[in-house]
Fold each of these.
Amino acid sequence: MIAQLIEYMQYPFVVYAMVVGCLIALCSSLLGVTLVLKRFSFIGDGLSHVAFGALAIASVLKMSNQMLLILPITIISAVLLLRSGQRRQIKGDAALAMISVGALAFGYLIMNVFSTSSNLSGDVCSTLFGSTSILTLTGQQVAMCAGLSIAVIILYVLMYNKIFSVTFDEDFARATGTRADLYNLIIAIVIAVIIVVAMSLVGALLISALVVFPALSAMRLERSFRSVTICSAIISVVCALLGIIISILAGTPVGSTIVAIDVLAFLVCWIAGKAIGRTA
Amino acid sequence: MALLQVENLAVGYESVPVARDISFALDPGDYLCIVGENGSGKTTLMKTLLGLQDPLAGTIRMGEGVARDEIGYLPQQTQIQRDFPASVREVVLSGCQAKAGLRPFYNRQDKETAARNMERMGIADLADRCYRDLSGGQQQRVLLARALCAAEKILLLDEPVSGLDPRVTAEMYQLIRRLNEEGIAIIMISHDIDEALSFASHILHIGKQVFFGTKEEFLKSPEGRRFIGWEGGSAE
C-alpha cells in the first residue's frame, strides 16, 4: 500500500491535489468556530445550495471559468442572509430555508432542461457530493483554489482579534466602537469564498461538514479561542489528508471519505473530552 | 462639565416609544441607578445610551474629552458566552479591541492594560482559565475587567447581580462601589431597589412618570414613595 502511495506521489497532479485539499480544509476550519458559536452553522448549508444553483447556471451558460459567476452570487447571498438573520431570528430562518431549497430545485431544473451532457445524473451527483476524485481538477482550478485559500488564511490571521470580539459579544464590540457591521460583512464574504472553494473538494451538500465538524471536535478538547482555532485547523488538515489518501488507494469518492473521517474524529474527540472530564 | 447630558430623550423600537421625556446629567464620580417596573424601557434606554440603537427623539451629549464610545459596558450574559471557549485573558483583552482600530494585533500597551485590570478585579490568577468554567461571580469580574479596558470614565452595568448568590452579590456591589470611589461614574440598571438606594448617589426612575434627582430627593418624591411601596421594599 505504501509502495502504491509512493508511486502515486510521483505524479505532480496527485501532489497538487493534496496541497489544494489541505489548503481548503485549513481555511474551511478557521471560521467554523465563529459559525458554530454564532449559531450560523445553517448559513453555511444554505449558501452551499445557492452555490449549487449558481454552478448549474454557469454550466448551462458554458462559462469557461465558472467561479466568475458562482463567487459573486454566493457572496451576495451570504451578505443578504447574514443581514436578515441578525436580528429577526425566525424570519431569517425561513428566508434561509426558502433560498436554499429554492436554489437547489432551480439548479437541478436548469441542469436538467438545458443540459447537453450525456451523463446528467453523474454531473449532478458530482456537484452535490464532490467529484469522484479531486485528481481531475484542472491546472486553472488548482491555482484558483490555492490562491483563494491563501487569501482567506491571510485575511483571517489579520482579523483574528476582531473576529473574536465580534463573535464573543457583538453588542459590547459595537458599543465600545468596534465596527461590528463591517466585520460581520467581511465574515460573510469569507464564508462565501470558503464555500465556493470547498465545493470543488467535497461537493455542495457536504461543505457544512467540513466547516462545522473540526470546530466542534476542537471545542471538546480545548479551552481558549486560540487553541480551539489551532486545534480545529490541525484536525481538519489531518482528516483531509487521510481522506484524500484513502480515497486514492481505495477508490472511494473523496468528499464523502473526508467527511466520514471528520465524523470519526469528532467521535474520538468527544470520547476523549469525556475521558478528561471536559464538558462542552 | 457633565460627562453625559441627556435631554428629552425618547427610546423605543421601530418608532414606537417605550419611554419618553428622559432627561438627566451624569457628573464625574456619580453613581446613577436606573429603576422602573419591568417593561418600562430600562434596557432599551441603556442600548440607546450605548449607541446600539438610535434615539426616537431628544439628544445625548457627551462631555468634553469623552468620545461616544468611551462608555464601558457590562451586558447581561448571553447564552453564546456560556459555552464559548475562551480564556479569561482573551476576553479581557478584547476590551482593548476598539482602541486598536485597524491594527490587527494587540500591542504591549493593550496587554498591560488588560493585566492591570485583571489585577484590579482580583482575577489575575484566573488569566489562563476557560471563561465558561468560572462561577457566575468570577465571570462578572472578567466582564468588568473587559469593560474597564474599553473605558475609564463611565461604566454602564445592566443588572450586574442577576443570578448571583447573596454573598457574591454583596462582593459585586462592593467592587462597583470601589470603582466608583476611584472616580469612575457608574450607571446601573437594577431591579434591586434596596441596593440601589444604599449605594447610588442619583436615581433615574422611568415609567409613566419620569423622575431624576439625588437619592434623597427621590425618597421624598411621589414616584419614589409609590415605587418603594409598589416594590414592597424599604429604604435602609
Amino acid sequence: MNEQIAIQITGLKKQYRLGQIGGGTLKADLQSLWAKIRKKEDPNVKIGQEARLSGQTFMALNGIDLTIRKGEAIGIIGGNGAGKSTMLKILSRITAPTAGTVDICGRIASMLEVGTGFNGEMTGRENVYLNGAILGMTKAEIDAKMEDIIEFSEIRDFIDTPAKRYSSGMYVKLAFSVAAHLDAEIMIMDEILAVGDVAFQKKCLDKMREAATVEGRTVLYVSHNMNTIRRLCDRCVVLDQGKIIFDGDVEKAIDIYSGTGTSLKKEVVFDRERSAKQLDGKLRFTSGTFLDTDVPVYHTGDAIRLALRFTAEEALDSAAIRVVVQTESGTPVGLAATEKGIPVRAGENELPLTLRFDTLAPGTYSARLIAQSIDEFGRGPMHDLVESAITFRIVHRDGENNGQGWYPHVWGYAQYPTVEIGKDV
Amino acid sequence: MEKNTSARHVRLKAKTGLFDINLKELWRYRDLIALFTKRNFILIYKQTILGPAWILLQPMFTTLIYTLVFGGIAGISTDGVPQILFYMAGTALWTYFSQTLTKTSTTFTANARVFGKVYFPRLVMPISTVLSGIINFGVQFLLFACFWAYYIIKGVIAPNYLGILLLPVILVYLGLLGMGLGIIISSLTTKYRDLSMLVTFGVQLWMYITPVVYPVSTITSPLLRTLILLNPVTCAVETFRWIFLGEGVISLAHWGISAAVMALALTLGVIVFSRVEKTFMDTV
C-alpha cells in the first residue's frame, strides 16, 4: 500500500437480512433444519409467506470504493439509511464486511459515541482511565495526558466525584476530552460534536481541525450538521443507498446532499401521463440526460448540457422546443427556446441542448418542456408538454455575491452581472 | 481480521481463517483487562454500607447454611474434616467456577452497547471476568485461611503443605474451564437466547454432581462415582481439599481427562468466540 494512503476501501459491501434473524429460538431453527433434511415443509414459515421472501436481504453498502490519504479531513454525509453508520462500523471493526476489503494504515480511534463504557458509579478520573483504555490507550499514555484531559474538560473540581452526579454537559465534556487526546493517526467520529454548549463545541471543532491540519492526522467525520462539516472537512463524500454519489468539494457535496431526496437525477424518463390538452402527439419527449455531471448541480454561469430524446411520427420541418424555467413552487422564472426548424426525423431522435441561464440566481429549479411546430404567423399545433421535466440546482461559486448567499423572496430569481464602477462607459 | 507484515497495517475483509486469533493485539490491551477487572471488583460493592465485607459475608452465610442443612440435618460425612472448613473450601471454589461460567456466558448480550460502539479485542471481557473471580476467591481464601490456621493449631487436620504450590494451577484450570464453556454459550446466545435460561438452571444442577457438600469418598455406587469423577470440576475441588485439609480423592487419570475437557472447551470457545465477535452486532 502506498505510504501516503491512510484508508483504502475496495468493493466494500455489507448485507443485512431483513426481518427476524433465524427462527428466533434454537428450537425453531432446529425444527426448520430437520424439516429441510426430510425435505418436508418448514413449520416456521408463516402461511402465505413465500419462501424467497424469508431470505430477503438488504445491501446497506453496495460497492464502495474510496481512498483516503493521510492528513485529510473527510466528511461523510447522506440521508438516513444511506449507509454512513454501517461504513463507520466496518471501519471501526465493530462488524465485518460481507464482501470487499478495507486496508487501514495506522492506529484508529473511533468515536461513534462519547463516553463509551462510562459508568456512573465510578469517579471522573476512574472513568477517564477506563474510557481511554477502551479507546486503545495504555495506562501510561493516559497518565501522561491526565492533566491535559482534565484541563480541557473544564471540570477539574468534580474529577473525583462519581460520574452519576454530573450534569449531562459535564459528562459529555469529560468524555470528549478523553477522545480528543487520543494518539491515533486516524480518527473516526460520528456526530459527537452535536453535544455540549456552543463554546465547547467550538473548542472541540478547533481541536479536531488542529489534529487534521497541524498534526497531520486523518479525520473521518459523519454529521447532519453541515456547518460543522464545512468547518472541519476539506473533502466530502455523499452516500446514497449504499453508494458514493459524490466525492470532492465540500460545498458541492452539501448541495448535492440537500438535493438527494428531491428529484435531482442525472437521467429523467418522461413516461408520466400528460396533463395538457390539445396535444397532437406527433412528437413526444421520451427522456433527458444531463451531460458532464452525475448530479445536476451547477455553479452560476455554467452551461447546462442536456441530451434530449423524443420520438416523432413523421419528419417535422418547423418544430421548436421551449424550456420554461420554474421555481420549486411552480412560479415561472424565464423562458429559453430553440429556433424553429430543429431537425426531427420520423422515429427516435436525440438532440444535444446547451442551456445558458447565466443570470439565474442560486436555487433549485425545474423546467417545463414544450414541443411545437410554428408557422409563419408564429402559431401552430402543440405536440408535447411535460411539466417539471427536468430539475437542476444552481449554486454560488466561492465568495460570490460577497458570500451573502441568496434570498429569492427578497432578491428574486435573477442575479445580474456584478455592477462595474468607472467612468469610461 | 488479518495482520499484515507492517505492525500498523490492518486489513478487514469478509472471510477469515479458523484460527484467526490475535494474541499480540490482546496483549496490547492488557491495561484494559486490568481496568475492567478493577471495575468489576469496585462496582459490586459501590454504595453498599458493608462494602467489600460482602465478599466475606456471602460465603460465610452459605457455609453456615450448608453446615446446618447438610452437616446437621442430613448428616453427610465430611471425611472427618471440620464441617466449616470442608464446606468453606467447597463453596469458595464452586463460587469462583460458577460465577466465571455464568458471567462469561453473557459476554456478548450484556456488553452489546459497548461492543456496538467501539472496537477492542472482545476476549478482554471474559478474561477480566476470570481475573475478578480470582480476586474474589483470594478474599474468601483469606477468611478460609483464618479458620484453617485455627484448626491446624488445634491439630485436627493434616494439610499437604507442599501441594500449596499447586493452588495457582487449580485456579487457572478452573478459570479457563469456566471461561471456555462460558464463551461457547455466549457465542450461541447471540442468536439463541434459550441457552441463557438453561445456564442458571444447569449450573445449579452441576453443583450437585460436584463434591461441594459431600466428599467423593462417601459415594459408593460405582456409576455415580464415575460420573462425579468425570465432572471436570471434581478433580479441582478434591485436589484443593487434599492440599489444605489432607483428605481427597485424586487420580492422575481423571486429572488427564479433565484437563483434556478443559483444553477442548477453551479451544472451541476461543474459535467460536472470535468468529462470532466479527458480526454478532448484526444479530444480537
